[in-house]
Backbone:
């Protein structure tokens, strides 16, 4: 089933532009043609202004909530390096271990376990309660944060989750 046929009342995304743009692009294909509006933690004056939206505007828009907890895993000293450079600098086996283990972080970076702690905590508190209220949510995030949430939802072990492959979304 394509995104255009799935009801969406609210979108959660990471604070990284790539995830936000993916959500925006996906919504351009949606049959309801609602306008995604990114919400921010703002001043009281800005909150007051946002309450002034007409009911018609609210019906035509979908709130997009950015959360740093849904950001991609931080690769520390590996951040920004391509796979070949990283393998040359640290060795192929060590790089593979950092990328594919659950609890071993790269130098000054996060392990999948560390990423999972923040992503799943945010999911439980902010996202998981919504479907019970009848809201349809979309989460636009990254491989490691999404893998962590899938681990929680599907009750996967740390060994099972490292083999989960996620394809890039297609609207």
Residues:
């Amino acid at each position: 089933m394509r995104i255009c046929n799935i009801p969406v009342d609210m979108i959660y995304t990471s604070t990284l532009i790539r995830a936000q743009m993916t959500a925006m692009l996906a919504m351009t294909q949606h049959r309801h043609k609602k306008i995604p509006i990114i919400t921010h933690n703002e001043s009281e004056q800005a909150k007051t202004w946002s309450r002034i939206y007409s009911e018609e505007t609210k019906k035509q828009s979908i709130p997009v909530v950015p959360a740093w907890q849904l950001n991609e895993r931080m690769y520390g000293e590996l951040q920004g390096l391509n796979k070949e450079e990283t393998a040359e600098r640290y060795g192929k086996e060590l790089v593979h271990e950092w990328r594919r283990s659950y609890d071993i972080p790269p130098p000054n970076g996060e392990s999948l376990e560390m990423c999972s702690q923040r992503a799943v905590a945010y999911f439980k508190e902010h996202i998981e309660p919504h479907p019970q209220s009848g809201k349809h949510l979309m989460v636009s995030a990254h491989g490691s944060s999404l893998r962590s949430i899938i681990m929680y939802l599907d009750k996967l072990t740390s060994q099972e989750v490292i083999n989960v492959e996620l394809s890039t979304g297609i609207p």
The chain is about 45% helix and 10% strand.
